[in-house]
Design brief:
alpha+beta; Ribosomal Protein S5, domain 2; Alpha-Beta Plaits; 2 domains; 4-stranded antiparallel beta sheet; 8 helices; binds ligand 2P0
């Protein structure tokens, strides 16, 4: 029994930062994201009767740190008791560096594991299961513009627009490719417990979600950029106000933000967002891609540039 699925990471424009139920990994508020097309994780899952325990291989190396989360995810999809499973993951972008690698990994894992057993849960159910493993993974079950709503006792994920309905481009400036110092789950919990800005952040999420949803429906790039930058900077303010502070930025992160602001002052259609890592994602109109790419590549401290369009949902590639 074997299946392989592919999923793309997603970039949140209205961010998820904080849980209302850590045990079930339920977010404290909703979020809106764009699913990318050119970055991906491919997950092959295979029952191996000769093995006594699960094995996780990531980009050709055994990964024991991530294995417990993968095991828990497999338990919820396959059920217990279950046979040992070999999971082989390949990712074409930096892992655990604020590039949403856990989103694409767990989205691909739930699709592959579900299919391996010949099950065929619908996308909504798979999104719920992916979200229990990694909150942002639920959004990668859908393509294009995606909203995750925080319902009473569950999450509800839906597509707001397909990628071809508003084909924006994303230029990612890699400032430091190494893994981040503190994982998102732990950092969110520090923020929830200690940041004086946390409650207000959660209270204001629905207003930002409304504004972004309307901007997306109207294809209003300026309005979307304005609320997305505001939401991103608010999330990082919550992090910076935590004790100990949660600071993911480097000097190159600020330099990239300045590059984006300079482009904006020249009339270029671009805005930035930054997640739990030092990389800067510049979202731009298709006709501005070359200019944005050149400006970020020329920014001090940028070691690499990745460019992507918006893509489709997580899907099975082989069974
Ligand atoms: C997001 N992030 O909305 C936000 C913005 C990072 C900053 O979702 O604890 O790996 O596994 O549910 O999904 C990263 O957090 O967290 C994240 P868990 P996840 O994309």
């Amino acid at each position: 029994m074997q299946a392989t699925a592919r999923a793309q990471p997603n970039i949140a424009l209205i961010k998820y930062w904080g849980k209302r139920d850590s045990a079930r990994n339920l977010p404290a508020a909703g979020s809106i994201s764009i699913t990318l097309s050119d970055l991906h994780t491919e997950m092959c899952v295979e029952v191996d009767e000769s093995m006594r325990d699960d094995v996780l291989i990531v980009n050709e190396c055994e990964d024991r740190d991530m294995l417990p989360r993968v095991k828990r995810c497999l338990d919820t999809i396959v059920g217990k008791p279950r046979p040992a499973v070999r999971v082989v993951s390949r990712c074409n972008f930096p892992i655990a560096a604020g590039m949403a690698s856990s989103a694409s990994a767990f989205a691909a894992l739930v699709v592959a594991a579900d299919s391996m057993l010949g099950q065929s849960r619908d996308t909504a159910e798979l999104a719920g299961l992916a979200g229990r493993a990694s909150g942002s993974a639920a959004r990668s079950l859908y393509g294009g513009f995606v909203e995750l709503e925080n319902c009473d006792d569950d999450i509800y994920v839906s597509q707001l627009l397909r990628s071809d309905e508003w084909p924006l481009r994303v230029v990612v400036a890699i400032t430091t490719p190494g893994p981040k110092p503190l994982g998102s789950s732990d950092a969110m919990e520090i923020s929830r417990r200690t940041s004086p800005f946390y409650n207000r952040w959660i209270e204001r999420q629905s207003a930002d979600l409304d504004e972004a949803r309307t901007a997306i429906a109207n294809r209003d790039f300026a309005k979307l950029g304005s609320v997305a930058e505001h939401n991103c900077l608010k999330m990082h303010s919550v992090m910076w106000g935590s004790r100990p502070p949660v600071i993911y930025w480097h000097s190159a992160t600020l330099a990239c933000m300045q590059t984006v602001r300079d482009l904006q002052s020249e009339g270029v259609g671009v805005f930035f967002t930054i997640d739990a890592g030092p990389q800067v994602k510049a979202i731009c109109l298709p006709e501005e891609e070359a200019r944005v790419r050149a400006a970020l590549a020329d920014t001090t401290g940028v070691s690499d540039i990745m460019v992507s369009g918006l893509g489709a949902r997580a899907r099975l590639v082989l069974r």
